[in-house]
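queue> pop job 88
queue> type: inverse folding (structure -> sequence)
queue> payload:
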């Protein structure tokens, strides 16, 4: 049985998600530089836009990736074209709106 992934372990998550997805080969594009490195807000916005474009072309985005991040709720990075903050706002799978 697999153990839960530690928060923020983006590279590991991507390795588990699939072996051939584009984000696996350039995890810093999706996760940003290592925590010790700095990134300007403009640099982050530009990097994240490119990551969103990679996700837009990914065949796993709407199926595997989105379901995966809804379950894992990563703390950083771009996943299925969404930021961690956007993913955190997604309703849980199977949740229903109040009548
Ligand atoms: S949708 Fe994006 S984050 Fe998800 S597997 Fe594809 S490239 Fe990676």
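queue> result:
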């Amino acid at each position: 049985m697999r153990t839960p992934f530690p928060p923020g372990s983006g590279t590991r998550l991507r390795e588990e998600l699939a072996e051939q997805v584009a984000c696996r080969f350039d995890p810093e594009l999706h996760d940003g530089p290592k925590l010790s490195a700095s990134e300007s807000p403009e640099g982050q916005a530009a990097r994240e836009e490119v990551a969103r474009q990679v996700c837009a072309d990914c065949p796993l985005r709407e199926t595997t990736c989105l379901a995966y991040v809804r379950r894992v709720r990563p703390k950083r990075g771009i996943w299925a074209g969404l930021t961690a903050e956007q993913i955190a706002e997604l309703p849980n799978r199977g949740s229903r709106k109040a009548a």
